[in-house]
């Protein structure tokens, strides 16, 4: 019984210790996308798509996806709309990422 209780506590401790994505994590992965968001174009830099794919694989929970969206939205605040948002929507398709960028303005 004690070993079962210890195992359950260990699993709960490991699960609760998992931190949600923060802007410190999102920023370095997303920053290579800012030039594309600013200027658009036919080609998205590989570093941008790689970063988005990394974030996509890290953002497993709704909270992670929400936090990633909020951080990305903050990162593009200085880029005049609607360009930033139109280019952000294109990133999902061009990089093969489905949920981090969709509905970008509504985190």
UniProtKB/TrEMBL annotation:
Residues that span the membrane, as ranges? none
Q: Which domain of life is it from?
A: Eukaryota
Could you list this entry's UniProt keywords, alphabetically sorted. Lipid-binding, Signal, Transport
Could you say which residues form the signal peptide? 1-19
Identify its protein family. Belongs to the plant LTP family.
Q: What does this protein do?
A: Plant non-specific lipid-transfer proteins transfer phospholipids as well as galactolipids across membranes. May play a role in wax or cutin deposition in the cell walls of expanding epidermal cells and certain secretory tissues.
Protein's recorded name: Non-specific lipid-transfer protein
Species annotation: Cardamine amara subsp. amara
What are the leading ranks of the lineage? Eukaryota, Viridiplantae, Streptophyta, Embryophyta, Tracheophyta
